[in-house]
Design a protein that fits this description.
24 nucleotide stem-loop, u2 snrnp hairpin iv. U2 a', Chain A; transmembrane helix; 4 domains; 10-stranded mixed sheet; ATP binding; about 10% helix; 8-stranded parallel sheet; transmembrane receptor protein tyrosine kinase activity; 9 helices; tyrosine-protein kinase; globular; alpha/beta; nucleotide-binding
Length: about 550
């Protein structure tokens, strides 16, 4: 009896151990760029792997792009199938591709898009694809960061009622999906004309297991819906671990679902870090955090490919330093001049220098959150997505910039009301000038009301060049004049530089107090009086508010 019990105990223990060591055999690959034809791919010059390795990839570390395939005669079966790919850590772009009708055929098991790099504010962009009929990404459950842009795909159906809000879990959640899908018409393989029927949902055996948007089943095609999972979010609305294939709750280390419940080795993606196919909440002390999602050895860190950096373009080396695999040294440290794979502490203030650029989204702006000096020019024009990003995010992104060696231009940003996000800005050197004249140019800002915090503590210098303010209807001229006086340029600028007519014409720029006195009160009326004011002269002169 005792022997039997011991055997049962041993068997149970072995089974438990086998279950716990169950893990994916992860195969990582780098960014993929399919361009011009379905069989023509571009990869980083340092990558020696053949395309067979990419087809076996489970996690793509970087971006996936399919674009510029306009030649006639392309068909679905010419495109490669990435049947093992579960996660893309960067962004996914499908642009101007003919012949591709169903994206799900290429990516039947794609579950997570990381959004570590974005296109504008978007992690998933499907744009101008003539023949695309279905996304078909029915396994996709999580986009960690960034939004979705699906526009100008004339035959695309079943996108309007996907519950994108349930898929997007990051701080940037912009969604632009063409709402004309119900009117598209296309021809099927039998040359019969079909109309998109997405407003009627799809035919599935268990519609109660599907998500809905505006009372319509969320479907990826006519026979597959966007399944619901009661463990996708927790009770406090934070993201949950997801569901197993049987609908049970996954291990807490998972995100986006799993194969087997309560097993950190069968997660489709990891909440924190992946270590040899198993999800863990932290990396071992002898390993390094890489891209905030994986544990690597020191040697593994050093082997990572160069990337485009805010500092230099593909010239630096990865550094295993203080528990993380860094590309740029962290704040307070600089690259060791004797060993580019190491960081050394700065003896004094060592500003982080970053290359100048054009910022067109909050995602692009966040790349500069640790930058102190901009080498070159900083052009900011955010026409998409700036409405949903809070002002604090832009302060987080640009609030550490102290110097700009070139010029600063801010334009076409409808949501911006002040330039307070540049809270640390001290010097604009003007070594390069906008239109060969201006170190600071601010124009076409329809809601801008305030400039920098110069009236409190911020002392800004402009070393070379002038300033230009044009077509800012809610920015009062007197505020502009206070600023140019502060920087010592009030004697140098002309009306051509700062227009008195196109700045502040829709703003209330001065106030005239109206002192009202109640002189008589009865049970049926009262009388108020005030001193005579010349209303006509006031309104002719400027925009005033009488209070």
């Amino acid at each position: 009896m005792r022997v039997s019990f011991l055997w049962h105990f041993v068997l149970i223990t072995i089974c438990a151990l086998l279950l716990k060591v169950n893990a994916w055999e992860e195969r990582h690959c780098f960014s993929i760029d399919l361009r011009n034809s379905p069989t023509q791919g571009f990869k980083h010059k340092s990558v020696k792997d053949g395309w067979d390795v990419f087809l076996e990839c489970t996690i793509l570390d970087g971006d996936l792009s399919i674009s510029m395939m306009s030649m006639p005669g392309i068909t679905d079966d010419q495109f490669p199938v990435f049947k093992h790919l579960r996660e893309i850590t960067g962004s996914m772009l499908v642009f101007n591709v003919n012949g591709l009708t169903n994206l799900g055929r290429m990516f039947p098991n794609l579950r997570v898009i990381g959004g570590q790099s974005l296109i504008m504010n978007y992690a998933l962009v499907i744009y101008q694809n003539e023949d695309l009929k279905y996304l078909g990404l029915d396994k996709l459950t999580i986009i960690r960061n960034g939004g979705v842009r699906i526009m100008d795909n004339p035959k695309l159906c079943y996108t309007r009622f996907i519950n994108w809000d349930n898929i997007l879990i990051g701080k940037i959640r912009d969604v632009m999906v063409d709402q004309s899908g119900g009117g598209v018409m296309f021809t099927d393989t039998n040359q019969d004309t079909e109309t998109c029927q997405d407003k009627f949902g799809c035919k599935v055996e268990h519609p109660e297991k599907c998500q809905k948007v505006d009372g319509v089943l969320s479907c990826w095609n006519a026979t597959t819906c966007q399944t619901s999972c009661r463990h996708h979010k927790e009770n406090n609305d934070t993201i949950g671990p997801g569901c197993s294939v049987t609908g049970e709750k996954c291990h807490a280390s998972c995100i986006g679902g799993c194969e087997v419940p309560d097993d950190p080795g069968s997660c489709y993606a990891c909440r924190d870090y992946e270590l040899n196919g198993v999800c863990v909440d932290r990396c071992p002390s002898d390993m390094y955090e890489y891209m905030n999602n994986r544990c690597v050895t020191e040697a593994g860190c050093h082997l990572k490919l160069p990337v485009k950096s805010t500092l230099q373009d593909e010239k630096m080396l990865w550094k295993a330093f203080q528990g993380k695999c860094h590309y740029d040294c962290p704040g307070g440290y600089q690259e060791d001049p004797t060993n580019p794979r190491n960081c050394v502490i700065c003896e004094d203030y060592c500003p982080k220098r970053c290359r100048g650029t054009t910022i067109d989204s909050i995602g692009e702006a966040m790349k500069y959150s640790e930058c102190n000096i901009i080498d070159g020019n900083l052009d900011i024009s955010i026409q998409i997505g700036g409405q949903v990003a809070k002002a604090e995010k832009f302060t987080e992104a640009l609030g550490n910039i102290r110097e700009i060696t070139g010029y600063l231009s801010v334009r076409f940003w409808p949501a911006l009301t002040s330039l307070h996000m540049f809270k640390s800005l001290e010097i604009i050197h003007g070594e390069q000038l906008y239109n060969n004249r201006y170190a600071l140019a601010v124009f076409e800002m329809e809601n801008l009301r305030q400039l920098f915090n110069t009236d409190i503590e911020q002392n800004i210098q402009i070393k070379n060049g002038l300033v230009s303010f044009q077509n800012n209807p809610k920015l009062c001229y007197n505020r502009i004049f206070q600023f140019i006086t502060h920087v010592g340029l009030d004697k140098n600028v002309s009306d051509n530089d700062i227009s008195k007519y196109s700045n502040g014409e829709k703003a209330i720029c001065e106030e005239v107090p109206l002192h009202v006195e109640v002189t008589t009160v009865t049970n049926v009326f009262f009388v108020i009086s005030w001193k005579k004011i010349l209303i006509q002269q006031i309104w002719i002169k400027e925009n005033f508010l009488v209070i």
